[in-house]
Write a structure and sequence with these properties.
This protein has helices at about 20-30, 45-55, 85-90, 95-110, and strands at about 40, 65-70, 80-85. The protein is an alpha/beta fold and about 110 residues long. The protein has a three-stranded parallel beta sheet with strand order 1-2-3.
């Protein structure tokens, strides 16, 4: 609300159950005329799926992708991904709360 950016309900997808569905949905969203210019994912498997979609569309150098939840090999991708590690973001006791909110938000935002 503070940024006065309106929510685009056309990019809200619910009920995705696997990485293939996430990739397919992301490809559909990034193929539109008003595709988002940046994406934040809340789980490493979602980050990989969105990155896969960006690569397939040759948009991996044009759309920013930031992921929550580091994963092995992320630094080997081109361009390298910006990732937030669990241990650096929140206390151990609160991780499950943050992940539940992040995952829910991402599933409702992609």
């Amino acid at each position: 609300k503070a940024s006065k950016i309106a929510l685009d309900k056309n990019i809200i997808v619910r009920g995705l159950t696997n990485s293939h569905e996430v990739t397919k949905s992301a490809i559909e969203i990034f193929s539109t005329k008003q595709a988002p210019t940046a994406v934040f994912t809340g789980q490493n498997t979602l980050t990989v799926s969105v990155y896969r979609a960006l690569r397939e569309l040759n948009l991996h150098n044009k759309i920013a992708l930031i992921g929550y939840d580091d994963f092995e090999g992320a630094d080997l991708l081109t361009p390298a991904l910006s990732l937030i590690s669990h241990s650096n973001a929140i206390k151990k006791a609160d991780r499950h709360k943050f992940m539940a909110v992040s995952f829910f938000t991402l599933n409702n935002a992609i």
